């Protein structure tokens, strides 16, 4: 393994660099902006420079931190760590000029930093503008370091106190470009790392084997990076798979269990009674590829993403609401129809617990815990009539015991059943609200955590139904559906569902195979950007908010975290209705700059007018 290369910028008296020299396995390159003659006049600088050179470190003078690649040959540009302590434009430069300095510095650093390298920036208390600063300055009066770094593709991965007293021989200097010290009490060291690139794509195509025929369809834009991710593959170390495995193991100790995952199709056909059509991802197949109704019967199904077109704009080929025929296809919003098919076909053994699992897809409004795709596990259990209540309680007790055994994270789950009533349903989350559309629910499975987790209090993570559909049968079917993604979030302290789908390898590195751990975010205090959009809705037309939210998800690559209606009025004479929405853009895992958010807003405005039939104001 080679030496760890460390670059230090803007050194004053070189005392910080001298404290690092001699570290085993480290090669130090210490630089300053001044000439050697000017730098040597600072108190103690000559001694530190001599010590650095004697230890084998490089000392370079007259280095401009905004043009770093000019000072190093291509083979010398792979620094593992870059330090810039207390940057400043000098004299009485204000916050705007210092933001500009940081922006140029970060862009320059990106050209000489190793792929997994770090950039350390120490700032005086309050300058950074993050919640870590105490007290925290107003945003406009800070250096806005996280937003500035995002412009160069960096995210803030750690922040901790800059303890000058623990650095041997260190003495701060350079106050207003003079050989004077300054106060570093409460100073913070900000550690930045590279972000994965922002997504830029349009729908790809998905090929599915249905009986003997292969069919393909265009994947909705919002789902392109979520089809065929393999979270539930046997060797997956994703927390969603770990939760499923533990639940399966726990249930198998109490019931004979049969896993039927291999025969589930991604596509359903026809109408789904009780479900609002605007909540469904409708799929249009090419006429020559459309299978018959017989070919849509459950059979081996495998989804393969075989093409992805990389450009930013595109449309979702949905059939307009109200035009859905019995032959129309849609991405499955639930595994319940598969379970009901097992029941109707009699392909079951009384007393055996059947387990189905896989991703399901639902159009929904944007909230931190509402997902257009999540992994569902559904159990089906046939019991004798009159015993269903005791069997439901036994099932819930087993789930509760299993989840309690998973609190290696330090988060203890508390499970409780809520009987389904109209008053309670409105208080539960969107997952429960959609489940209510699928049919009558007997119980909601709710979960709280101790200490309180990131999801709302009493989050609904599952539902239980019973069915007496088989006429003349003494059997009652118990269906229990669980949202594996919500369970993983609660158990691992993950505050944003989008993190489950991040391509950043730092997420899965935190979860060894078969283990759940408390998640530590690698992107702290991500900046948010607010934009408004106003438009006219034609007279007599109903505006589909779910379609609007889905479009915002797709165009922004899930960067819109909030959409709020700010104003609404009807114009006299024309009958047109004006709507004004406020959108908040924020990423949980990638660097999103002010410019990047503005570009997303512009694309969204174009697509709103083109796809939703409104007129921009």
TrEMBL record:
It catalyses: tRNA(Phe) + L-phenylalanine + ATP = L-phenylalanyl-tRNA(Phe) + AMP + diphosphate + H(+). Its EC number is 6.1.1.20. Transmembrane segments: none annotated. InterPro entries: aa-tRNA-synth_II/BPL/LPL (IPR045864), BMT5-like (IPR019446), Fdx_antiC-bd (IPR005121), Fdx_antiC-bd_sf (IPR036690), SAM-dependent_MTases_sf (IPR029063). PROSITE patterns: FDX_ACB. It is found in: Mitochondrion matrix. GO terms for molecular function: ATP binding; phenylalanine-tRNA ligase activity; rRNA (uridine-N3-)-methyltransferase activity. Residues 524-617 form the FDX-ACB domain. One of its GO terms (biological process) is rRNA base methylation. Keywords: Aminoacyl-tRNA synthetase, ATP-binding, Ligase, Mitochondrion, Nucleotide-binding, Protein biosynthesis, Transit peptide. SUPFAM superfamilies: Anticodon-binding domain of PheRS (SSF54991), S-adenosyl-L-methionine-dependent methyltransferases (SSF53335). Signal peptide: none annotated. GO terms for cellular component: mitochondrial matrix. It comes from the Eukaryota. It is an enzyme of class 6 (ligase). Pfam families: BMT5-like, FDX-ACB. Gene3D superfamilies: Bira Bifunctional Protein, Domain 2, Ferrodoxin-fold anticodon-binding domain. Belongs to the class-II aminoacyl-tRNA synthetase family. This is phenylalanine--tRNA ligase. The lineage of its organism: Eukaryota, Metazoa, Chordata, Craniata, Vertebrata. The gene is Fdxacb1.
């Amino acid at each position: 393994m080679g030496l760890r290369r460390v670059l230090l910028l803007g050194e004053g008296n070189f005392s910080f660099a001298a404290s690092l020299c001699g570290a085993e396995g480290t090669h130090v390159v210490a630089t300053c902006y001044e000439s050697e003659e000017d730098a040597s006049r600072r108190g103690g600088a000559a001694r530190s420079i001599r010590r650095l050179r004697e230890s084998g470190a490089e000392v370079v003078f007259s280095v401009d931190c905004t043009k770093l690649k000019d000072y190093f040959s291509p083979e010398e540009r792979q620094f593992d760590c870059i330090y810039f302590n207390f940057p400043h434009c000098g004299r009485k430069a204000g916050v705007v000029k210092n933001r500009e300095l940081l922006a140029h510095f970060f862009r320059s650093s990106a050209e000489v930093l190793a792929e997994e390298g770090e950039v350390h920036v120490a700032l005086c208390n309050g300058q950074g503008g993050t919640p870590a600063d105490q007290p925290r300055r107003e945003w406009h009066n800070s250096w806005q370091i996280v937003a500035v770094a995002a412009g160069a593709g960096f995210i803030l991965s750690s922040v901790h106190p800059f303890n000058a007293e623990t650095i041997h021989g260190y003495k701060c200097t350079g106050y207003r470009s003079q050989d004077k010290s300054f106060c570093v009490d409460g100073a913070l060291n900000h550690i930045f790392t590279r972000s994965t690139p922002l997504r830029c794509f349009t729908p790809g195509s998905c090929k599915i084997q249905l009986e003997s025929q292969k069919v393909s369809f265009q994947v909705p834009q919002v789902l392109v990076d979520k089809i065929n991710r393999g979270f539930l593959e046997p060797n997956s170390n994703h927390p969603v798979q770990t939760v499923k495995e533990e639940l399966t193991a726990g249930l198998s100790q109490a019931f004979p269990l049969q896993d039927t995952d291999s025969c589930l199709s991604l596509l359903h056909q026809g109408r789904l009674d009780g479900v609002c059509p605007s909540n469904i991802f409708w799929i249009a197949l090419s006429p020559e590829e459309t299978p018959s109704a017989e070919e849509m019967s459950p059979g081996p199904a495998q989804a393969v993403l075989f093409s992805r077109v990389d450009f930013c704009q595109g449309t979702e080929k949905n059939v307009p609401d109200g035009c859905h025929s019995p032959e129309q296809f849609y991405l499955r919003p639930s595994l319940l129809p598969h379970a009901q098919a097992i029941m109707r076909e009699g392909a079951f053994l009384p007393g055996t617990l059947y387990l189905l699992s896989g991703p399901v897809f639902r159009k929904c409004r944007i909230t931190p815990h509402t997902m257009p795709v999540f992994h569902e596990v559904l159990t089906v259990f046939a019991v004798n009539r009159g015993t269903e209540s005791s069997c439901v309680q036994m099932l819930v007790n087993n789930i509760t015991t299993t989840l309690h055994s998973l609190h290696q994270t330090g988060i203890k789950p508390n499970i409780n059943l809520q009987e389904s009533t109209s008053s309670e349903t409105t208080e539960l989350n969107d997952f429960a609200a959609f489940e209510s559309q699928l049919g009558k629910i007997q119980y909601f499975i709710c979960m709280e955590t101790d200490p309180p987790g990131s999801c709302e209090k009493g989050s609904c993570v599952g539902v239980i139904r019973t069915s007496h559909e088989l006429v003349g049968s003494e059997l009652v079917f118990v269906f229990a559906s669980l949202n594996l993604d919500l369970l993983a979030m609660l158990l691992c302290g993950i505050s944003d569902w989008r993190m489950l789908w991040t391509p950043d390898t730092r997420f899965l590195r935190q979860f060894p195979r078969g283990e759940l751990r408390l998640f530590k975010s690698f992107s702290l205090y991500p900046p948010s950007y607010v934009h408004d959009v106003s438009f006219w809705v034609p007279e007599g037309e109903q505006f589909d908010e779910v379609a609007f939210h889905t479009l915002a998800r797709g165009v922004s690559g899930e960067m819109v975290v909030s959409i709020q209606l700010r104003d609404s009025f009807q114009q006299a004479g024309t009958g047109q209705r004006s709507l004004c929405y406020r959108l908040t853009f924020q990423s949980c895992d990638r660097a999103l700059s002010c410019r990047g958010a503005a570009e997303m807003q512009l694309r969204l405005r174009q697509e709103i007018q083109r796809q939703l039939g409104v007129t921009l104001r």
